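Database export, one record per block. Field names are fixed; values are copied verbatim from the stored entry.
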Amino acid sequence: MDLGLNGKVALVTGGSSGIGLAIAQKLAAEGCKIAICGRDRDKLDSAAASLKSAKAFAADLCVLADVAALVDNVLKAFGGIDIVVSNAGTHLPGRLEDIDGDAMLEHFKTKVLGVWQLARSVVPHMRKKGGGRFIVIIGQAGKVPQGNAIASTVINAAQHSFVKSLSDDLAPDGILVNAVCPSRIKTPLTDHLTLYNEVYYGRSLEQQESKWGAEVPLGRWGTADDIANAVLFLASERAGFICGTNIDVDGGHQRMIF
């Protein structure tokens, strides 16, 4: 099946490992020219070396000037940007008393303000080209509020609101904005994740996985490639009438019906 991606330029933030790297690899395999960004230059260079037609750009999405410079540098290197996948950021566990204002602000800067600036920087170019794709990776806490992940719950919910509002704004310009929502995905992030406080009981990650996986109707953890496949579809010409939506990639784990 031809996805219509050959020759497109894709910018993937947080693209040096895990889900971001898997997305970059899938897009590259379909013939996209790849720009990945992150904060660790060594990891970026290693990831770029494993990709076809890829360039690495160091940038911190918490710094608005970095975001604007990132888009300018990608445009200079490739002559355009057709697809943006916003994947930078991480999960911030903890209850209210665990998360101070500075930590919350840093989380907000990366996952909301940075993405805001990314859109502001790239949209004028996409408008001139007559369209594009803007895809945001949003963790499950935005849909499934959690007392022990209150920061991620609030910030991820803000991301959902941004995606829906931005999709309304940009749809008339042919710029399709959507989200992919992972849950129960094995990545380097989950290697150090505390599940049900079992780490305090000295149990192994494999023992924790057995309980985590049991909650998933498919009975297993997902992989970074599972997320990348959904992104690949949304980036493609085959998703030309999907706008302002979010796709759960979770093996059936999340329980909401809307």
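Remark 1: Helices lie at 18-29, 41-49, 64-78, 101-129, 150-170, 205-214, 224-235.
Remark 2: The mean pLDDT is 88.
End of record.
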